[in-house]
Amino acid sequence: MAKAIGIIPARLGSTRLSEKVLRPLQGRPLIQHVWEKARQAKSLSDVFVACDDVRIQQCVEGFGGKAFLSRQEHANGTSRITEVARQQDAEIIINIQGDEPLMASAAIDTLVDDLQSHPSVEIATLAIKKTDLDSYRSPHVVKVICD
Fold first, then answer.
1. Residues in the chain with pLDDT values less than 70
2. How many Cβ atoms sit within 10 Å of the Cβ of residue 52?
3. pTM for this one?
4. Residues 6+ apart with CB under 8 A from 128
5. In Å, how far from its chain's centre is CA 124?
6. Strand 123-125 relative to strand 46-51: parallel, antiparallel, unpaired?
7. Contact 35/101 with Cβ under 8 angstroms?
8. If 0-12 CB within 10 Å is exposed, 13-18 middle and 19+ buried, where does residue 36 land?
């Protein structure tokens, strides 16, 4: 069975809400909620945060997580993940969005199971299907195009 890890890209300068990943939610930083959900996935051997700022790194390490400080100039989370993934010994890399504290851990396990069946796929991002027009039109809702 291929080794799978999760990597959470975290950028301090979010355009929609600055320092979003460090903002408290029920007494803990948002990034901690996401990391804890990812750690509940049975299929991941480890979970890392790929961050662009030492404050995120210190926060993650403060709650017991593993964080890698990546280069500042990444254009997106996927390129930030790629930098960290190249330093890991894993066949499957799961891109876990850093601002999804309600993510279902079972969804990660389903994705890893699917990727085990398709070894040529090297990186994936979980997404959910939205059908409402308001989400489609909103600049605050991240979109994924599938083909």
1. 122-125
2. 19
3. 0.85
4. none
5. 10
6. unpaired
7. no
8. middle
Helices (H), 28-132: 30-39, 54-62, 77-85, 105-116
CA–CA separation, 93 and 115 (whole Å): 10
78: DSSP letter: H
Q: How far apart are CA 139 and CA 22, in angstroms?
A: 22
Backbone angles phi, psi at 125, to 5 degrees: -125, 130
State both tokens at 134: 């308001």
Q: Give the pLDDT confidence score for residue 123 in this predicted structure.
A: 66
Distance CA 1, CA 42 (A): 13
pLDDT at residue 110, rounded to an integer: 93
User: pLDDT of 76-95, one tens digit each?
Assistant: 888 899 999 999 999 899 99
**Paired tokens of 133:** 């027009």
**For 68, which DSSP code?**
E
